[in-house]
Specification:
Order of helices and strands: EHEHEHEHEHEHHEEHEEHEEH
Number of helices: 10
CATH class: Alpha Beta
Helix content: 25-40%
Oligomer: single chain
Largest sheet: 10 strands, mixed
Radius of gyration: 19 Å
CATH topology: Alpha-Beta Plaits
Number of domains: 1
Distance between the termini: 45 Å
Length: 277
């Protein structure tokens, strides 16, 4: 399915890559860490930055290194060991694909020549398709902006697909799942996506990317969600995800198939990602 066939925006505002790194056993990764840090030499390290990237930084590319948080990742419907068992992850974002694709190629060479592997989830950034002015004020006007890695040390990645039945719906039918539903006495009987996730708006920074080639395609995720938050707000993130997965209160999730919910800790350099310090 292509966006233009679904009454969704076709505009691309940027690119993101999620590079899940699985390491082979090695005694000393000092040289590898130094080489990985060299890959991002011309890019901005998002770990040290508050707020959205500047135009210059976005044009050059930005990276964030993460070390897997042991015991926090959990599998959902789509089993994907290359994601769920990854030791670390690099998130890249850029206005164009070429700079971050070059980083990906370099990282893959470094890891694979040492017996490890890199699994890539790719996505494009688009303007919101289901957002009216009123919903923007409710869900985004007071949303938590990006923060540095010391303020928001935890991150989670949530790749997912929508079912064929979802993509076959009329766009007004799909859009209705984001709003609450009321009975004949005007009482809320179903929260919908907006209210089910409302608790996370002021405390969790959320980013969402779309499948570059279109939706409902074999071998792709339709969406990849990325969330950053403080240690104290980890329970809020879990509450939000539980609310979204409650199909009685959020019927949209009947049409969702999730990949692993991968948790990581944001780190400043490759030595920290590789667990050397």
């Amino acid at each position: 399915m292509q966006p233009q066939d679904l009454n969704m925006t076709t505009t691309v505002t940027g690119h993101q890559l999620f590079l899940f790194v699985t390491l082979a056993d090695a005694e000393d990764e000092t040289e590898l860490a130094r080489a990985i840090d060299g890959l991002g030499g011309d890019m901005e390290n998002a770990h040290d930055v508050d707020g959205a990237p500047s135009e210059d930084a976005f044009s050059r590319g930005r990276f964030q290194l993460l070390r897997a948080e042991a015991g926090l990742t959990n599998d959902q419907q789509i089993i994907h060991p290359a994601v769920s068992e990854a030791h670390g992850m690099v998130r890249l974002e850029c206005a164009t694909l070429a700079p971050i694709k070059e980083y990906e190629d370099g990282l893959r060479t470094l890891i694979e020549e040492r017996g490890g592997s890199v699994e890539t989830l790719a996505g494009v950034m688009r303007p919101r398709s289901y957002t009216s002015h009123a919903m923007t004020q409710f869900a985004y006007a007071h949303a938590m902006p990006p923060n540095n890695g010391e303020t928001h040390p935890l991150a989670a990645v949530t790749p997912m697909n929508k079912t064929d039945a979802w993509w076959q719906m009329d766009f007004l039918h799909r859009e209705s799942f984001f709003l609450p539903r009321y009975d004949e006495n005007e009482n809320i009987v179903v929260k919908g996506h907006a209210l089910a996730s409302a608790a996370g708006v002021p405390s969790i920074n959320r980013r969402l990317v779309h499948a570059p080639e279109g939706y409902g395609l074999q071998g792709n995720y339709d969406f990849v969600g990325y969330f950053e938050f403080a240690e104290a707000d980890a329970p809020v993130f879990r509450e939000v995800m539980a609310g979204l997965r409650d199909t009685q209160q959020n019927p949209e999730w009947k049409y969702v198939l999730e990949g692993p919910e991968w948790w990581g800790r944001r780190v400043r350099n490759a030595a920290q990602m590789l667990g050397q310090v």
